[in-house]
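Retro notes (design track)

What went well: tokenization of the new backbones is finally stable.
What didn't: we kept losing track of which sequence belonged to which structure.
Fix going forward: every design gets posted as structure first, then sequence, in one message. First example under the new rule, 474 residues:
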């Protein structure tokens, strides 16, 4: 965000929203178009988890039965919380800390602070993994990681992540590209980047899916994903679908509050949120049609998690006609998915530092970059020379990732739903209807989803796994 102190009426009307802070008029950048905002929000939501987590979950938790439950959660709790976060941002025109404080009072500042902290923690390991995508793209082009058995490719992956310096070099490259986009600003940097990157991601994904579903034996993977297996559906399936819907939309960390704060007052928040949810689901389903048919066509295990991306799929590509080209496409697509999410994560603390400490956008972005890189060092080394050192039984990267998924994001989600449902309902409802100009027939339904359904459901995401871990420990 660029900050200007100006009395220029034309500049303020055409480019910025303004708010008063300590007696000074602070001019705030806006998205240049609704399309740009939707692409940015979709980029925040679409990430690495769409590729390596959703396909297996859908196949192992009931096929299309899981998909139906997942879409139901996306269309209710997911879209409801997304609308709420965007509305919080646009109503306040502030970063997450300032937004919670403005709408809920000083006692709510902690919730915004939690979002800023969560974003920095996520970036500390996400940038490491994003660096891997660049490494694999480069090595695919050179042929260094193309061809061979799953065992040899697994050894290559192990050699990469356990290396002391190479992952950190790619980490710096990934972070540098992210920071360069954020430094350029909202409309000139983030919006211009996502307008190119997100359509490119969709196009590459469609090309890869077309190749995957036409492989001999691909039908087994399609059946694994799409065949409804209602007998396998239980509360674990419901919990998995709810957790995936919540985590895949980047909820609970302030990204959408930050992006929403740059949104003009005329944009329809509800339809924009619906588009973002649709695109996120669309990418997840396409990822399923990319991964599972290819994996089943060559007889590999679809439950390999991150190994599915960096070991199993390269082995599949090596047995495929034109495999090197398709593998390069795949890892570039994965890089795009990673960097668009990373851009949104960096934007959260940058927005906070520029407003709270009056830092320049360049200074705030570089400060965040330094903090994240320093934290990313132990994350990367925990897979190599520090792999024998654990805390609570986990290495640094796994510990931070689990802390975010199990605790920080769910707590942030509960805070959002309680704030909009009980504390600042009237202000947020007015924002969702553009001050009464847009009819919202489902407003009463949304109100009670935020007041009751969402907090209870997210609490289950928080408490359910915790209870299971405590029971296992006992």
């Amino acid at each position: 965000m660029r900050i200007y102190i100006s009395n220029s009426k034309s500049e303020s009307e055409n480019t910025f929203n303004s708010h008063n802070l300590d007696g000074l008029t602070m001019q705030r950048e806006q998205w240049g178009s609704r399309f740009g905002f939707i692409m940015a929000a979709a980029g925040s939501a679409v990430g690495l988890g769409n590729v390596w987590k959703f396909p297996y979950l859908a196949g192992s938790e009931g096929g299309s039965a899981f998909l139906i439950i997942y879409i139901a959660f996306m269309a209710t709790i997911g879209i409801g919380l997304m609308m709420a976060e965007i509305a919080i941002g646009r109503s306040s025109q502030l970063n997450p800390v300032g937004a919670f404080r403005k709408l809920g009072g000083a006692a709510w500042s902690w919730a915004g602070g939690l979002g800023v902290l969560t974003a920095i923690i996520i970036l500390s390991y996400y940038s490491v993994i994003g660096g891997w995508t660049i490494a694999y793209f480069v090595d695919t082009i050179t042929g260094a990681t193309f061809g061979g058995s799953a065992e040899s490719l697994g050894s290559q992956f192990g050699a990469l992540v356990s290396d002391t310096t190479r992952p950190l070099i790619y980490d710096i490259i990934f972070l540098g590209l992210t920071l360069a986009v954020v430094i350029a600003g909202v409309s000139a940097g983030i919006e211009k980047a996502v307008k190119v990157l997100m359509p490119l991601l969709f196009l590459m994904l469609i090309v890869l899916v077309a190749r995957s579903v036409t492989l001999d034996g691909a039908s087994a993977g399609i059946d694994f994903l799409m065949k409804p297996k209602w007998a396998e559906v239980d509360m674990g399936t419901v919990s998995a679908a709810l957790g995936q819907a919540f985590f895949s939309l980047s909820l609970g960390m302030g990204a959408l509050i930050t992006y929403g704060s740059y949104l003009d007052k005329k944009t329809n928040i509800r339809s924009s949120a619906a588009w973002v949810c649709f695109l996120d689901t669309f990418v997840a389903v396409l990822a399923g049609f990319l991964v599972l048919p290819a994996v089943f066509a060559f007889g590999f295990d679809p439950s390999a998690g991150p190994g599915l991306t960096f070991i199993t799929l390269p082995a599949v590509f090596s047995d495929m006609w034109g495999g090197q080209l398709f593998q390069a496409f795949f890892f570039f697509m994965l890089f795009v998915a990673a960097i668009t999410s990373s851009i949104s994560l960096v934007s959260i603390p940058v927005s906070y530092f520029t407003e709270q400490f009056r830092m320049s956008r360049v200074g705030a972005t570089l400060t965040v970059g330094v903090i994240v890189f320093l934290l990313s060092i132990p994350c990367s080394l925990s897979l190599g020379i520090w792999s024998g050192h654990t805390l609570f039984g986990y290495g640094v990267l796994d510990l931070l990732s689990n802390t975010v998924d199990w605790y920080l994001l769910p707590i942030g989600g509960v805070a959002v739903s309680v704030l909009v449902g009980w504390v600042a309902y009237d202000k947020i409802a007015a924002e969702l209807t553009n001050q009464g100009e847009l009819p919202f027939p489902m407003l009463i339904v949304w109100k009670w989803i935020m007041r009751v359904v969402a907090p209870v459901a997210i609490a289950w995401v928080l408490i359910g796994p915790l209870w299971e871990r405590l029971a296992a420990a006992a």
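Added context from the reviewer: The CA atoms of residues 131 and 170 lie 5 Å apart.
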